[in-house]
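#lab-general

N.A. 3:47 PM
ok so I finally got the sequence cleaned up, no stray characters, all 93 residues accounted for. can someone with queue access submit it? mine expired

B.Y. 3:52 PM
send it over

N.A. 3:53 PM
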Amino acid sequence: MAATEGEATMSEQEEQEQVRYSIVIEWSEEDQAYVVILPEWSDQYAMPVGDGETYEEALASARDALETFIQFAKEDGKPLPQPRMYAASAPNV
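B.Y. 4:20 PM
back already:
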């Protein structure tokens, strides 16, 4: 079903919400894989929440985890964690 003007589909809404969250992807020598940490969700779920043999696989795993966490929070009626806010550039001092 196509979205009407001014109305986003559920997947578009979830994608917009996902964009606001931090995703940390680091190489793990121990696991020989890229591992995923979602800082805003770390007090609710054990980290890391995903991995991948490549950076792209780890990023896909992060997106899947975010989609799941957002869905669970909505189903349980819990508020979503506040995204971290960073300045685009440092002020001149």
